[in-house]
Amino acid sequence: MAGSLTGRQREILKVIRESVQRQGFAPCFREIGEAAGLSSKSSVSYQISRLQAMGYLRRPTAPRQPLRLAD
């Protein structure tokens, strides 16, 4: 995986990992934002896009499917 993570990106990955372990799926953007201290959906979307570009997350191609952690 390329690139170094910011503290906020590490927090987002932690929130997603914990949710997947606890519930079996990733939280919604609103829940990610609340847990990571982001106030807008666009901020969450930007961070998710960066994590995807760095290879940490996979975004499904079909709408309404949860995020997936990269293996």
Secondary-structure-derived class: mainly alpha
CATH class bucket: Mainly Alpha
Biggest sheet features: 2 strands, antiparallel
Domain count: the total is 1
The named CATH superfamily? Winged helix-like DNA-binding domain superfamily/Winged helix DNA-binding domain
| Number of extended strands | 2
Uncertain runs with pLDDT below 50, 5 residues or more?
A: none
H/E order of the elements?
Answer: HHHEE
Using the alpha-carbon principal axes, give the shape: globular
Features:
3 helices; 54% helix; mainly alpha; 71 residues; single chain; Arc Repressor Mutant, subunit A; two-stranded antiparallel ribbon
How are the SSEs ordered, and which strands pair?
Blueprint: H1 7-23, H2 29-36, H3 41-53, E1 57-58, E2 68-69
Antiparallel strand pairs: 1-2
Helix pairs in contact: 1-2, 2-3
Structure characterization notes:
With 71 residues, the protein is mainly α. It has one domain (7-69): Winged helix-like DNA-binding domain superfamily/Winged helix DNA-binding domain (Arc Repressor Mutant, subunit A, Orthogonal Bundle). The chain has three helices and two strands. The chain has helices spanning 7-23, 29-36, 41-53, and strands at residues 57-58, 68-69. The chain has a two-stranded antiparallel sheet. The chain starts with 6 loop residues before the first helix and ends with a strand. The mean pLDDT is 87.
